[in-house]
């Protein structure tokens, strides 16, 4: 069996950096900002039990992120990238048990009326959310470190969403105490810079067309992970009695 003839119209050289970045940014339409669940959240149409379900399920995402980042580090042979990526683990886990992004998410969960224990034992985590988040961690374990890094680029789409979420939640759910919003206020301070430096790493280390296309596919996969999380939560909301 011979190999398939190469189509002379199929480009094989790397895309110019600007085209590559544009191909990544083009995926913003697949991001979760306009998911029906997020729209209801922004419009103040979620009930307290629905907000609780969201917070308890997002916890599973938040708590798995450091394992995803550790998998990227484990697969990466470059000390300068590992050193840089390590900051993400420290950000989520904190330098000690009392701080870090994950702790701040727990504060939000408590502010919407959940007990810390029922969040930590994950009794509210939906099967679909678990499957989606586990798929993200497994993707980082199984794929190249560049694909793992590229999959985190959804964050380049997130600052506007997070700012809007913060403003809309303060307005529409005034019963949530301000301490509950620490996650978003502290995340907003780092996320724009993180998104920019992640793009730089991806552009620098995806030198071939194949690597560039794999990076774009990794970001598309991650958009699907996020939407699958909200699909599951949204579906479960329809089963909560009003
Ligand atoms: O609230 C959001 O909409 C949102 C989105 C994302 C994202 O786009 O992946 C992250 C976060 N938050 C977040 O808080 C966070 O720590 C985070 C880490 C990552 C990642 O893939 O490494 N994404 C996100």
Automatic annotation (TrEMBL):
It catalyses: 6-(2-amino-2-carboxyethyl)-7,8-dioxo-1,2,3,4,7,8-hexahydroquinoline-2,4-dicarboxylate + 3 O2 = pyrroloquinoline quinone + 2 H2O2 + 2 H2O + H(+). It comes from Streptoalloteichus hindustanus. Ring cyclization and eight-electron oxidation of 3a-(2-amino-2-carboxyethyl)-4,5-dioxo-4,5,6,7,8,9-hexahydroquinoline-7,9-dicarboxylic-acid to PQQ. This is Pyrroloquinoline-quinone synthase. The gene is pqqC. Residues 23-231 form the Thiaminase-2/PQQC domain. Keywords: Oxidoreductase, PQQ biosynthesis. Coiled coil: none annotated. Pathway: Cofactor biosynthesis; thiamine diphosphate biosynthesis; Cofactor biosynthesis; pyrroloquinoline quinone biosynthesis. The lineage of its organism: Bacteria, Bacillati, Actinomycetota, Actinomycetes, Pseudonocardiales. SUPFAM superfamilies: Heme oxygenase-like. InterPro entries: Haem_Oase-like_multi-hlx, PqqC, PqqC-like, Thiaminase-2/PQQC. HAMAP family: PQQ_syn_PqqC.
């Amino acid at each position: 069996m011979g190999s398939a003839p190469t189509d002379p119209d199929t480009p094989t050289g790397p895309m110019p950096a600007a085209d590559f970045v544009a191909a990544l940014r083009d995926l913003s339409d697949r991001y979760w900002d306009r998911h029906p669940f997020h729209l209801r959240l922004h419009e103040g149409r979620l009930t307290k039990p629905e907000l609780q379900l969201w917070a308890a399920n997002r916890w599973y995402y938040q708590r798995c992120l450091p394992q995803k980042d550790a998998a990227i580090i484990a697969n990466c042979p470059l000390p300068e990238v590992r050193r840089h990526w390590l900051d993400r683990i420290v950000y989520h886990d904190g330098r000690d048990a009392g701080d870090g992004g994950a702790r701040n998410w727990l504060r939000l969960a408590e502010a919407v009326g959940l007990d810390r224990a029922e969040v930590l034992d994950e009794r509210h985590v939906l099967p679909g959310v678990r499957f989606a988040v586990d798929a993200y961690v497994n993707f980082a374990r199984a794929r190249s470190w560049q694909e793992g890094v590229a999959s985190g680029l959804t964050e380049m789409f997130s600052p506007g969403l997070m700012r809007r979420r913060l403003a809309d939640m303060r307005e529409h759910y005034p019963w949530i105490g301000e301490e509950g919003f620490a996650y978003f206020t502290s995340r907003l301070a780092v996320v724009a810079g993180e998104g920019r430096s992640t793009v730089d790493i991806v552009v620098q280390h995806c030198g071939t067309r194949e690597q560039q296309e794999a990076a774009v596919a990794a970001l598309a996969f991650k958009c699907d992970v996020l939407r699958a999380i909200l699909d599951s939560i949204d579906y479960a909301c329809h089963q909560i009695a009003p």
